[in-house]
Structure formats: C-alpha cells, structure tokens
Amino acid sequence: MIALLAIGQSGPAGKAQGPDPIVVMQTTKGTIVMRIFLGLCPQNASSFLDLVSHGFYNGLTFHRVEGWVIQGGDPRGNGTGNFVDPQTGQTRYLRLETNRNLRHNGPGVVAMAHSRSPNSASCQFYITKKAAPALDGQYSIFGGVVQGMDVVYNISIGDRILSARVIDRSDNRPGGPPPGPAPQPGPQETDSGF
C-alpha cells in the first residue's frame, strides 16, 4: 500500500502539529475517504471539519453531478443553501483561501463551492472527477480523496451522504482508514473560474 504524504498542520510560527486530518464519508454509493489540508488551507479546512464533527452533512444530498465534478453539502439540496449558525442565526461565509501549492490537477480534488462572489463559500463542497486547471486560484482547495474515487465516479444526483466523521490519525490502531495516495500539491496556475 502507498502511504499518505506527511504534510503536517502548521500552527503559529509554522511548526508542524501532526498529520492532516482524515474524513470518512459514507454515501449511498459507498465510502469516500478524504485527507484535509488543514495546514495549507486552514480557514476553509477548519470550517469543513467543524461541520463534519457536528453532523451537518449527515443526510444531505449530492445535488450537482457533471462529467468532471460532483457537488454536495447544501442543506436545501438545490445549490442555493448555506450554513446558518444555530447559536447566532448568522450565515457562515468563508473568504477565498488559495495556496500556490494546491491545484485542480486531477481527479479527487476537494474544494469549497461558492456563488459569483469568491467570498461566498459556506458549506457546499465539490470533488473533481478530472483535472480542472481553469478553476485554480478561483476556489478554496482544502482536501483530496485518498480512497473511494470509484464511489465519486458512481455518485448520481440525489445520492446521500449517510454520515461523515473525522478520524483521529494520532493513534495508529488497526481499523483506521486505509492509506492511499493523495492528490499532489503543485504550483498554481490562475485562469478563469466556472
């Protein structure tokens, strides 16, 4: 088996704090395992991890499926929904957060979707089925699929996220997610978005 790359999380002063978190997403078509690039895209990755840890995505659908992408995480199920914090009643919006080392360079790139404004991402995410370099610099890439691309390719509109959970990689007990290759960060090329 191929081991995951050891890009650590960076905290204050850029010191590594541990391995990237892993999210295991059970869907109606099978399991998708994602490596979350917390050190390379901290705000968007943290927001996604927070929503996963609170069960936000459980039961939501994939509302957009095209030859190059799947998109889900919309509480309305139609591409218009956002996360509204139940304690404040305020919509959580995320600023565009790019990293020159992250590109839409192949299948399995995980990024935040947004509307026309680059700072309007909230909770919807997408996973690429193939390279989409025109999106580089336009969307916040915060992760990569390390296992389950066969599931991504088989997702249809209306398929559900049954559950999503963050796996603690600090203990290497048996039964953790199987390691696999992650999309490789590379130099960023900025083109137009979609």
Describe this structure as you would to a colleague:
- With 194 residues, the chain is mainly beta.
- The protein has a single domain, classed as Cyclophilin.
- The chain contains two helices and ten strands; from the N terminus they run ββββαβββββαβ.
- It has an eight-stranded antiparallel sheet with strand order 5-6-8-7-9-4-3-10. Strands 1-2 form a two-stranded antiparallel ribbon.
- A hairpin with a 2-residue loop joins strand 5 (62-66) and strand 6.
- The radius of gyration is 15 Å and the shape is globular.
- The termini are far apart.
- The relative contact order is 0.26.
- The model is unreliable at 1-16 and 171-194 (pLDDT under 50).
Concise description?
The chain is mainly β. Helix content is about 10%, strand content about 25%.
Feature tags:
mainly beta, Cyclophilin, eight-stranded antiparallel sheet, two-stranded antiparallel ribbon, 2 helices, globular, disordered N terminus, disordered C terminus
Structure classification:
mainly beta
Spatial arrangement of strands, main beta sheet = 5-6-8-7-9-4-3-10
Our count of helices gives: 2
- Report the CATH superfamily: Cyclophilin-like
> How much helix, percentage-wise, in residues?
under 10%
